[in-house]
Amino acid sequence: MRLSSCFFAGSSTSLTGSLFSSLILTGVILLGVLTTFWVSQLLSKTVLKGIPSSFTLELPPYRKPRVGQVIVRSIFDRTLFVLGRAVLIAAPAGLLIWVMANVQIGDVTILKQVSNFLDPFAHLMGLDGIILLAFILGFPANEIVIPIMIMGYMASSTLVDYTSLESFKELLVANNWTWLTAVNTILFSLYHWPCSTTLLTIYKETKSKKWTALSFLVPTVIGIGVTMLTTLIVHLFNSL
Q: How far apart are CA 141 and CA 198, in angstroms?
């Protein structure tokens, strides 16, 4: 929503700008839904081909909610789960980001060297090395992708975020962002690999490394393909 407001809505405070930004976001959601149906149909005719299985869901009997039990279950099922995820996944990821942003090799941080290495492939997707690296380092939790991206552009050693859309856009434009970069970033955000917690849940439910790997590869391949195709089409039109 932030990127669509910056690059496609003009003034984020105007009614027309907000409406256009909302339409962009709605279009992305619809695209994701249509892709889900298409991939489901494709898998049903290939790797999941066979006799359709029935699914019966039996609803439990209705009981009057117990306030104490709801509070206890909420604490154990929600609060402790989030805290556990922060300790086991987000904390090591934050440490890795800090090391990459602070340790230098030849007067260049590891973060910058890795982003430069990713640049050629990222440009094929209409992105840059910093954006692609932010998605990779955001694998433990997708919420930290944008802060990592900002940190890479600012050469900062801490995760930062912007509250002003204008200053956020100025930072992106100063780092050679165009409307195509914003489109491809939104598209890759829609399609890229699930976060580590989701993949861990898939593995626990299926007990299969194959299906877990497939859950990672399918959206990733689609995301790379869609962004490359979008970039190619725009470049072809610009060359005409």
A: 10
Question: Within a 10 A sphere around the Cβ of 100, how many other Cβ atoms?
Answer: 21
- Phi, psi (degrees; rounded to nearest 5) at 95: -65, -40
DSSP run (H or E) holding 108: strand 108-109
Length of the chain, please? 240
| Cα separation, 100 vs 103, whole angstroms | 6
CA–CA dist 107, 185 (Å, integer): 29
* Locus of tokens 């491809």: 184
- Distance set, CA 75 to CA 65, 89, 91, 201 (Å): 16, 20, 21, 19
Q: Which two tokens stand for residue 225?
A: 């393909």
Residue that the structure tokens 């340790």 belong to: 103
Q: Which residues contact 61 (CB under 8 A, 6 or more apart)?
A: none
Write down the domain spans for the chain: 1-31
pLDDT along the chain (240 residues), means of 10: 63 57 78 88 80 74 78 72 67 76 83 90 93 89 81 67 72 86 90 87 88 92 93 87
- Residues 145/151/154/157 CA torsion (nearest 10 deg): -170
Please give the model's pTM, rounded to 2 decimal places: 0.77
